[in-house]
Amino acid sequence: MPRPDPLKKSAEDWRRLLEPERFNVLFEEGTERAGSSALNLEKREGTFICAACHLPLFDSSAKYESGTGWPSFFQPIDPDHIATRRDFKLFMQRTEYHCARCGGHQGHVFGDGPPPTGKRYCNNGLAVLFVPRGEALPALRE
Fold it and tell me: Looking at domain 11-132, does it have CATH number 2.40.40.20?
């Protein structure tokens, strides 16, 4: 599947659509407190979608308990749904990833995950919504 077309919205448009905490994580690159997301305990089958534009990002089959306090995944649904860039905050180099469609900050990817990828996509719970298998995914937000 090709990389999704970018969704162009202003910060004010997103601020009107999202709760303040979600806006902070997604568009101001905030981070929620470790262990604060109910999605850490989510064990049902389903899809994790971007909380801003509803692009599917992760399948529950790729979720695992990393012990970090944030929902973690070893691979995205489609690599073209995730975009990355280097992050030098906290005085070390990390790889930030975000939704390829709306640019919403999701978290950071590390090389200490389980097989088969060896990657850990450490996601802010506020940056995604969970849709149980069998329920319709919400329409992509325009």
Answer: no
